[in-house]
Every structure is written in C-alpha cells, then in structure tokens.
Design a protein that fits this description.
The structure is a single chain. This protein is 39% helix and 18% strand. By secondary structure, the chain is an alpha/beta fold. The protein has a single domain (10-43, 98-282), classed as Vaccinia Virus protein VP39 (Rossmann fold, 3-Layer(aba) Sandwich), CATH 3.40.50. It has a seven-stranded mixed sheet with strand order 4-1-5-6-8-7-9, with helices on both faces. It has a two-stranded antiparallel sheet with strand order 2-3. Helix 8 links the parallel strand 5 and strand 6 (201-209). Helix 1 packs parallel to helix 5 and helix 8 (186-194) packs parallel to helix 9.
C-alpha cells in the first residue's frame, strides 16, 4: 500500500488537528525543536490516492472549503485555516501536507506573530523512497530529514529542551524486528518518553493505529496508553488522550509544556465544530 492511500483520512484529521492546536499553544516559547519519528513523505497526492481507490483528500478539501476560515478562537480553527490557506495555492490543489510540513507552516506563522526566534527540525524516515519524497517536500523550508529508523536516533531526537516530539508509527507491535518497518513496541516507546520527562519544557505526542488485521490491537492500545499515563503522572506531567475508531493520540505536557496541553479545547468546544465526530477525548 502506498504512502498516499490513507492521507487525509480520519486518523490524519485527529492527529493533525490536535498537532495544530497544541503547537499553536507554544507561542510563548522563544525556541522550539520539532522532532518526529516517522516523518513520512511530507506531502501527499490526491491523484495517487484516487488511483488506489480512496478519496480522503478530496473529501477533506471539500469539507474545508465549505466551512471556510474559522474565527481563531474556535476549536479546530488552526488546522482548518492552515488547510484553507494551503489549498488557495493553485499548485497545492491536489496535495495534502503531512505533519512535518504542517508544523513548519504553523511555526513560520508563529515566528511572524508570536516571536519564536529559532525553530530546529529533527525528523527521521527509514524507507528510502519515502525519504526521497520527504527531502523534496522539506527543501522549500530549508530543512533535511535523517534517513534512518527512529529507534537508532533516540538521543538525537530527544536531545534538546523546548522540545515538541511527535511519535507516530503505523501501529503497535510486540516484535522488535517490526520497528524497522514503521511499528513500535512498548519498551521503545517508554524509552523515548522517559528521555523527555526531566526536561524543563517539553511536549510529547503519541499517535498510533490498531491494525485492521490485529486482533490484539485493542489490548495493545490500552496497554501502551496506560503505560504512558503512568509515566506522565509519576513525573507530574499532564496526560490527555483522544481517539477515533482505530486511531488514538496521547499528549503529555512536561514541566513548562503543561500549559500547552491544558489549553487544548475540551469536549464541549469540539461539539460545536465540523470536527466533533473525529475529536473524542477520553478521561
């Protein structure tokens, strides 16, 4: 299955909407390092997606254009308005930006409006062809991705303070050999989160999906997120958890990163938006 097949689907909407909300809450940070473990292709093609029999990007674009620009105070406005701006460009009409590009578009705006002085980008992608596409997508921003599997780059990805780390594998696994093909096991996830817990200001997001042919998926999802919650609470970090169907994303606000997680809109706010069926928070 190609990189474009699932782009812009409900799992992406869950991840990217909350990425935009959370990153936008970091406007008082003077420096930020955006790090991501599974960076993907950077930009995804509606044409290629439709050749694979899916219409997620076209459907999402229609939704965004029907909604139009939202008031900045509305839940979901950062994601909605970013995509509305993106699709205004003729060259972007049939393209969807992935999480790295969305983060860079947003931090560029924050640099202009909020005073962020420096943005570092540290992202990894293991697949050679996907890394080639990512390199092309990041070139206009002036950044490069490391061509390597994420588990070999723990120190590099988590080195800096003022860190915004997104861990977003394909799905859960108990097989460490599967880490090289985009999955994650609990031991590796715990190592990444633990490496961040003593920072003075940090945010960690963990997005994952249950495989459709993974009967133990729900058990693993519960186990992984329970472990994250315990790690966070032992360090007095703030943990919030959102899900939609087979997809879930957990956010951890560490020390000075707590306010950005606290400020993610609550349930009542999402109920008044076009995203109300996608953004579901669990206590």
């Amino acid at each position: 299955m190609g990189q474009d097949r699932n782009s812009g689907n409900k799992g992406d909407q869950l991840k990217h909407c909350l990425l935009a909300e959370t990153l936008g809450n970091c406007g008082d940070w003077s420096n930020i390092t955006y790090a991501e473990t599974h960076a993907g292709a950077g930009v995804y093609s509606q044409t290629k997606q439709e050749e694979e029999g899916a219409t997620h990007i076209a459907d999402l674009r229609a939704d965004i254009l029907s909604v139009g620009k939202l008031d900045p105070s509305s839940a979901g406005s950062r994601y909605t308005n970013l995509l509305e701006d993106w699709w205004q460009a003729e060259s972007n009409q049939k393209l969807y930006p992935g999480s790295v590009c969305q983060a860079l578009l947003q931090t560029a705006s924050m640099n202009e409006n909020c005073g962020i002085e420096e943005v570092q980008v540290r992202v990894t992608e293991a697949c050679p062809h996907t890394h080639e596409r990512l390199t092309e997508a990041l070139a206009p921003f002036g950044y490069q991705a490391r061509h390597d599997a994420f588990q070999h780059n723990l120190d590099w990805l988590t080195e800096n303070d003022d860190l915004f780390l997104l861990i977003d594998p394909f799905t859960y696994t108990t097989n460490r050999d599967a880490l090289d093909i985009g999955h994650i096991d609990l031991e590796t996830l715990s190592k990444f989160v633990s490496a961040c817990l003593n920072k003075s200001r940090c945010i960690v997001g963990f997005w994952c999906a249950m495989g459709r042919k993974q009967p133990e998926g729900k058990t693993l999802q519960t186990q992984f997120n329970s472990e994250l919650r315990q790690l966070a609470e032992r360090q007095d970090a703030l943990f919030r958890y959102f899900s939609y169907g087979q997809y879930s994303i957990a956010w951890i606000g560490i020390a000075g990163g707590r306010p950005a997680i606290e400020q993610i809109p609550r349930k009542a706010n999402w109920k008044r938006t076009w995203l109300e069926k996608v953004i579901k928070e669990s206590e």
